[in-house]
Amino acid sequence: MKPGFLQIFHILPVGSPFLAAGYVLDRFHNKPAESTKGSPKTIRASILLAIVWLMCAMSTHSAVWYVNHSATGANIGSDWNNAWTDFSKINWSSVNPGDTIFVAGGSYANFTIGKSGTASAPIKIERVRASDAIPVLAPGWKPAFDSQVVQTVPTGQSGIYITQGIGSFLTVDGRVNAGWRINISDASSGVEIDQAAATNVALRHIQVNGPGIITETGDTRGFDLSPGAVPYQRHLLWAYHQQHLSLQ
């Protein structure tokens, strides 16, 4: 049997539009000559359709990125071995609307969101689950990655910081109860939306833990979602959260 187009596309995840186009091309590539007689226009039209489908897939296919605190590779976010090792290592210039950033369980620092999605293509930052089809097939996957994401925030900082409107059309999701935990300290916040408001932000399954009984030197807030600049905050989804704060 001649090498088929599906052999070229076999590394793509199930459900990828590239696979569908490859399947159409493969049917004609490996079809016996006698079965293709009599309708050259139909054959050409089908092949052209597959090529157009491929081109559309190339222009709209969203990327998947990885954050893994234990990665030891190139630190470029391409798979679990070469994942960004902390949120501060994310190359936001590579992230585009519609992309998903999967996060392995483990310990991380605070970070600032560096890109907005769009209404039709939001950016998602999600704790990975073992039931996710694409990330479990990525090189370096370990079942232990399906565990709690934990951020530790220093004094005066915010665990997840959305500012100047950058971070609109964004989802941050721990996926299960307390799947994403943020440990804050004095004068810090778990999640903060500051300056010009971001819109269409979804925050799910985030637990914020306070520093215990302290005397505050500055505002200490679990969720600081009240930017003062006009326009004000719009279309905010805030669901399945927990706050454990002990302040004095």
Q: Please work out how many helical segments DSSP would assign.
A: 3
| Number of E-type strands | 15
Q: What is the structural class?
A: alpha/beta
Strand content: 25-35%
Specify the biggest β-sheet: 6 strands, parallel
Output the strand order for the largest sheet: 1-2-5-8-11-14
Q: Write down the overall geometry.
A: globular
Query: Mean pLDDT, nearest integer?
Result: 82
N-to-C series of helices and strands: HHHEEEEEEEEEEEEEEE
Helix content: 10-25%
The number of distinct structural domains comes to: 2
Rg estimate, integer Å: 23 Å
| Stretches with pLDDT under 50, minimum 5 residues | 1-25
- Rounded to the nearest angstrom, the distance between the terminal CA atoms is 75 Å
Commentary on this structure:
By secondary structure, the chain is α/β, with parallel strands linked by helices. The longest helix is centred in the N-terminal third of the chain and has 21 residues, at 40-60. Helix 2 packs antiparallel against helix 3 (40-60). It has a six-stranded parallel β-sheet with strand order 1-2-5-8-11-14, with no helix packed on it. Strands 3-6-9-12-15 form a five-stranded parallel β-sheet, with no helix packed on it. Strands 4-7-10-13 form a four-stranded parallel β-sheet, with no helix packed on it. The chain has three helices and 15 strands. The chain has two domains: 5-60, no CATH class; 64-244, no CATH class.
